[in-house]
Prior knowledge:
By secondary structure, the chain is of the alpha/beta class. It contains four helices and five strands. Helix 1 links the parallel strand 1 and strand 2 (48-52).
Amino acid sequence: MRKKQLNENPQAKPRRPERARNPSVLVVDDEDHILKLYQEELTEEGYQVKTATNGEQALRMAETESPDVVVLDIKLQDQNGLEILGGLRKLDGNRPIILNSAYSVYKNDFQSWLADAYLVKSSNLDELKKKIKELISF
């Protein structure tokens, strides 16, 4: 039988291996004030935050930056976010994607079901932070 070491805590949870870097989030929105708010709030939470203002930029950054999660607005000026969602899924079918829209009506659109979560935009980002943490925890 193995002897218990002095520092061993029988109720302690097993430790996860340390990450080499902070988790990264790509935020896609065409409104500057939203991007600034999300970048500030998520950076304070310890995430590396990258931002994109259009569909082309979002797809390029998703491919080159390999973010851990994408927060995607639906109503963008150049392209529908649901179309971008399809492109993001083709790049990496396992990357978590959160649709984040001011309009709850898109929640019923079958294309939105490709996303891992659908959140209605709010100035209180607690729900978004909780969902990001949930989706990138392993």
